[in-house]
Specification:
OB fold (Dihydrolipoamide Acetyltransferase, E2P); six-stranded mixed beta sheet; six-stranded antiparallel beta sheet; about 25% helix
């Protein structure tokens, strides 16, 4: 397989701080790869090393199979889109896009043809003569990408480029960026702390914590088969408890939580725990079924968890609506429920039973 970008054992320190710790990954040609993690985890430092603005303390960075450690940023066929875009306000759209080509000494006729072509590909063929201040936020975003793509980079780096946009525009730009990546068939490396951006757009996502990668996988793998408790808690929404394993049978484990609940689950990766082990257990809200008929809390013989409670709050968000159920142990549990606005909707105070299968409860050894 051909890789546009490879990092092999890359590390970076600032004094006693290890910002990036022995990171390795490979990105196949023409794919959308995201690095997802909280602020301060090292993702921007890693991207700056790929771009050439920082030198790694150890390891190697390869583009198209060739090491670029000794090449300055302007000699690497890598371009970068920043959060604030850095478009030149004194130049119009065509001049902004043509700037890099002019710096490279490309003839005027070729520049005109290349600029027209890239504007067509970002679906803005008629904005060439406009000033930057006349563009919408989404148009500026596409022009910033066009300015990079006209130079035909091997890799395009995007450093939280949607962070300055309002929510509605950010949602539409996720789809736009994915379509643009398909249009150009260029490798995009995207860094973000927003899990929704990473999951919607990416072919593969690396989840980063404290300078190291916790897991690399498809969005579906990260969501449904997290490798660590950090990934399970950071990617998607989850109900989360700490507790101890009180009974173990193969991958199946019964957990007594610190809040007094008894929950049947399965060990992540199928690796069972010993009894008494400290564990964390995660359940996605959409895996929990809400039954209007109140009943007794129980864990059935088939491994189905059942808890009685009352509806504490309704969290309306269209198709992603949730309800908060307060159990008899005074525990709040978030569950998925379609709220339509009709008479059949749940109401605050309704008695309900919530249930979910044992294999929907994922257990990890606790770090604490």
């Amino acid at each position: 397989m051909d890789y546009d970008l490879e990092c092999v054992g890359v590390s970076k320190t600032f004094g006693e701080l290890t910002a990036v710790d022995n990171v390795s990954f490979e990105i196949p040609s023409g794919s959308f790869f995201s690095i997802l993690g909280p602020s301060g985890c090292g993702k921007t430092t890693l991207m700056r090393m790929i771009a050439g603005f920082e030198q790694p303390a150890s390891g190697d960075i390869r583009i198209k199979g060739q090491s670029v450690l000794n090449r300055p940023p302007n000699k690497r066929n890598v371009k970068m889109v920043f959060q604030h875009l850095a478009l030149f306000p004194m130049m119009n759209v065509e001049e902004n896009i043509a700037y890099g080509l002019r710096c490279n000494g490309v003839p005027k006729k070729e520049i005109k043809r290349a600029v027209a072509n890239v504007l067509e590909r970002v679906s803005l063929p008629d904005v060439g003569t406009k000033e930057i201040h006349q563009l919408s936020g989404g148009q500026k975003q596409r022009i910033a990408i066009a300015r990079c793509m006209v130079l035909d980079p091997d890799v395009l780096l995007l450093d939280e480029p949607l962070g300055a946009l309002d929510l509605k525009l950010r949602e539409s730009m996720k789809i736009e960026l994915k379509l643009l990546q398909h249009q150009f068939n260029t490798t995009f490396v995207y860094i973000t702390h927003d899990q929704s951006e990473a999951l919607v757009m990416s072919d593969h996502v690396a989840v980063m914590k404290d300078g190291a990668f916790e897991q690399i996988g498809t969005p579906q793998e990260l969501y449904h088969d997290p490798a660590t408790a950090f990934v399970a808690g950071f990617v998607g929404d989850s109900n989360r408890w700490r507790g101890r394993a009180v009974a173990v049978q193969g991958p199946g484990v019964k957990v007594q939580t610190d809040t007094g609940l008894t929950i049947a689950g399965e060990a992540a990766g199928g690796n069972g725990f010993s009894e008494g082990a400290s564990v964390e257990i995660f359940v996605r809200p959409e895996f929990i079924t809400v039954d209007r008929t109140g009943g007794n809390a129980a864990t059935g013989p088939d491994g189905v968890n059942k808890l009685a409670g009352k509806v504490d709050s309704l969290l309306f968000n269209g198709a992603n609506s949730r309800v908060l159920v307060r159990t008899e142990k005074d525990e709040l549990i978030e569950a998925g429920f379609q709220l339509t606005g009709g008479a059949e909707d749940l109401r605050q105070g309704d008695s309900v039973t919530i249930s979910w299968r044992q294999d929907r409860s994922t257990c990890f050894r606790s770090d604490s």
